[in-house]
Amino acid sequence: MSEKVIKWLVLAGLALALVFTPVLLSSQTRMLQVKGSDTMVNLAQILAEEFMARNPKTPIAVLGGGSGTGITALINGTCDIATSSRDWKAKELDLAFEKGVKPRLFAVAVDGLSIIVNAKNPLAQLTMEQVGAIYRGEVKNWKGVGGPEMKISLYGRQSNSGTYVFLMEHVMGNKPYSTDMKEMNGNAQIIEGVLADEGAIGYVGVGYVVERSSGQPLKGLKILNISKGVKEAAYSPLDKAAVDSGAYPISRPLWMATNGGPKTAAAAFLQFAAGPDGQKIVEREGFYTVGGKLQEQNLKNLK
Amino acid sequence: MNPTTQRKAALLVALTVTASLGLWAQATTPPPQTFGTTIYFDYSFNATDNGYLTGTDAAKALNNKFAFRRAYFTYENKINDYLKFRFRYDADNTANLTSVDFVKQSTKKDDKLRPFVKHIYLEWSPNFLTSKINVGMIETLAFKLAEDRWGYRSVAKTLLDGYKDITGVEVDATSADLGATWKGTLIRQLRFGLGVHNGAHYSHVETDKFKKFSGYLQLVPVAGLNVVAYLDYEKQTEDLKAMTTKVDVLFDMISNLNVSFEWFSHDNDAFKNANGSGYKASGWSVFGTYKVVPDKLGLFARYDHYEPNDSVADNETGLIIAGFDWTPMHATWKLQPNVWIYNYADGKKKGDVIFNLTFFLSF
Question: In this predicted complex, what is the ipTM?
Answer without folding.
Answer: 0.81
